[in-house]
Amino acid sequence: MKKLLGFILTIGLGLLIIFALEGNQLFDDFGYANLADRVSSHYITKGSNVDIIFGETVDPESGPANIVTSIVVDYRSFDTLGEVTVLFISALGVSLLLGSAVTQKRLNLDFKPNFMLRVASRALFGIIIMTGVYVTLHGHLTPGGGFPGGTMIASAMLLLYLADDQFRAKIKSFKILEGVAGSLYVIIGLLGLIIGTYFLQNFLPNGTVGDLLSSGIIPIIYILIGLKVGSEISGVIDNFLTEEEKQ
């Protein structure tokens, strides 16, 4: 009965938040954002200075509507690969120091999370995950990308760890996901070297500025970064909140 009551209250609170935002004139309609006034109208296309028309200009030199993304994941994508590598080394160091034990258990917390906290955290978990996915997928269109999206996903894992003293994620799956995402990032870079002329070259069509499916390999790289960052930070969280199990 308590679980049912907690679930009903959580759903009711969620609906209240949705309806409150729906009637707020400061928020755009769901799935719609008029970005034309927020995007710089001066890009370099095909070696000459031209005006960019959001939603109409096709195949610019750099596809993202977000100029920061153009720099971070296009012109200086190799630097971003280095940043991901730094995070990997940090997570590896924490794993070697705290996660080397064969058998581990959850760290005993000084407090016991109550029932409402556990139920509400699981309801918020899905919302935070979807927000992280949205921020990652739209990194080439709006402020965001793989790094903030990945940290949002990891924050959802942290919420479950703090709200449930018995919860523990399957870290082995995170390690596999982390390795696959990092490897694919390097493979895409090598494809740019083979198909194009240099490592991590954007070898796919840039499409139309403002479309979700645009900017060539940039959305793909952001997805890989989001998966890698989320899995690595989640692994760090698990290492800090577990301890060696005494035999």
Q: What's the SSE pattern?
A: HEEHHEHHHHE
Q: Which residues sit in consecutive blocks of at least 5 with pLDDT less than 50?
A: 38-48
What is the count of distinct domains?
Answer: 2
Largest sheet: 2 strands, antiparallel
Shape: flat
Distance between the ends: 38 Å
Short structural summary:
With 247 residues, the protein is mostly helical.
Spell out the key features of this protein.
two-stranded antiparallel ribbon, 2 domains, flat, 247 residues, mainly alpha
Write the layout of secondary structure elements.
Blueprint: H1 2-22, E1 42-45, E2 48-51, H2 67-75, H3 77-98, E3 104-106, H4 115-137, H5 146-163, H6 171-195, H7 218-240, E4 242-244
Antiparallel strand pairs: 1-2, 3-4
Helix pairs in contact: 1-4, 2-3, 3-7, 4-5, 4-7, 5-7, 6-7
Task: Write a structural description.
The protein is mainly alpha-helical and 247 residues long. The protein folds into 2 domains: 1-32; 64-244, no CATH class. The chain is 57% helix and 6% strand. The protein has 7 helices and 4 strands. The protein has helices at residues 2-22, 67-75, 77-98, 115-137, 146-163, 171-195, 218-240; strands spanning 42-45, 48-51, 104-106, 242-244. The strands form 2 sheets. A two-stranded antiparallel ribbon has the order 1-2. Helix 4 packs antiparallel against helix 7 and helix 6 runs antiparallel to helix 7 (218-240). Residues 38-48 have low confidence and may be disordered.
